[in-house]
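User: Can you recover a sequence for this backbone? Please restate the input before giving your answer.

Assistant: Of course. Working from this structure:
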C-alpha cells in the first residue's frame, strides 16, 4: 500500500468565483474578474478514501478525484455540495491541472466567464461515461465523455504536463510499454 498522501481538509476556492446558471449544464462556476494564465482558482480538498471505500459508497458520487492508484480525494456521501462541485466539463476547457488536486487557468479568462475543465484531465476510471452527451458547444466537442479519454493522443498533446499526477503517470507508463 502506498503512503497516505497529504491533502487539504477542505477545498480552497478563489474568492472571485461564484455560482450562476450555465448554458453548458445547470449551474456553473463563473469569475467576477479577469483571470490570468496560470492563476490558481481551485485546490480540491476533503477526505481521503481508498478504492474499497469508494466502491462501498462512502464518498459522494462525482465528488472525488484519484490522487494515486490507491487513494481518492472527495467528499463524504452525506456532505453538502460546495462551489467546487459545480465545475462543468468542456472539450476545450479554460482550466487545467497542476498536480493532483489544483485547477489553474489555461489561458486568460474574461470577467463573467464560466470556468470549465476537461474531465479527461483527472478521470482514470475506465468504466466511467458521462450520463448525458457533452453540451460544451465547442468545435472540439467529443459529445461522449468517458474515463478512457485521456488515452487520446490529441488530448495528450493538448494537455501535456497538465493532467493530474495519476493520469500523467499512466500516460508515461503507456508510452514506456509501447517502446518495449
Amino acid at each position: 500500500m502506498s503512503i497516505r498522501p497529504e491533502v487539504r481538509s477542505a477545498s480552497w476556492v478563489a474568492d472571485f468565483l461564484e455560482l450562476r446558471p450555465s448554458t453548458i449544464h445547470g449551474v456553473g462556476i463563473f469569475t467576477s474578474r479577469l483571470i490570468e494564465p496560470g492563476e490558481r482558482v481551485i485546490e480540491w480538498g476533503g477526505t481521503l478514501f481508498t478504492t474499497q471505500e469508494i466502491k462501498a459508497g462512502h464518498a459522494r458520487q462525482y465528488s472525488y478525484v484519484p490522487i494515486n492508484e490507491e487513494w481518492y480525494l472527495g467528499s463524504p456521501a452525506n456532505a453538502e455540495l460546495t462551489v467546487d462541485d459545480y465545475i462543468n466539463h468542456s472539450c476545450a476547457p479554460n482550466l487545467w491541472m497542476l498536480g493532483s488536486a489544483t485547477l489553474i487557468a489555461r489561458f486568460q479568462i474574461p470577467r463573467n466567464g464560466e470556468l470549465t475543465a476537461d474531465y479527461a484531465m483527472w478521470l482514470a476510471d475506465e468504466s466511467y461515461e458521462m450520463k448525458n452527451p457533452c453540451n460544451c458547444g465547442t468545435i472540439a466537442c467529443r459529445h461522449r465523455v468517458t474515463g478512457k479519454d485521456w488515452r487520446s493522443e490529441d488530448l495528450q498533446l493538448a494537455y501535456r504536463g497538465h493532467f493530474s499526477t495519476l493520469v500523467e503517470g499512466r500516460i508515461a507508463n503507456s508510452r514506456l510499454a509501447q517502446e518495449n
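That completes the design. The chain has one domain: 12-179.
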